[in-house]
Amino acid sequence: xxxxxxxxxxxxxxxxxxxxxxxxxxxxxxxxxxxxxxxxxxxxxxxxxxxxxxxxxxxxxxxxxxxxxxxxxxxxxxx
Length: 79
Known about the structure:
By secondary structure, this protein is of the alpha+beta class. Helices cover 34% and strands 24% of the residues. The chain has helices at residues 12-21, 41-50, 66-72, and strands spanning 2-6, 26-29, 35-37, 61-64, 76-78. Strand 2 and strand 3 form a beta hairpin. The N and C termini lie close together (12 Å). The relative contact order is 0.35.
């Protein structure tokens, strides 16, 4: 599994399209133990609403398989 963080200037629509194209699961994990499957439409809506207040997910990370990480790296940074 690869762990990534959001870049400060993420372009959300292309990012969500890239997530949709991923073969495996792509999860947003918070330090409090919350896990959102970003392939789920409901989770995607939650992510978009939370991105309006980036401080809410400042310590969150994206977890995905290595093959999918390559497709998402232009939107995220490796941690």
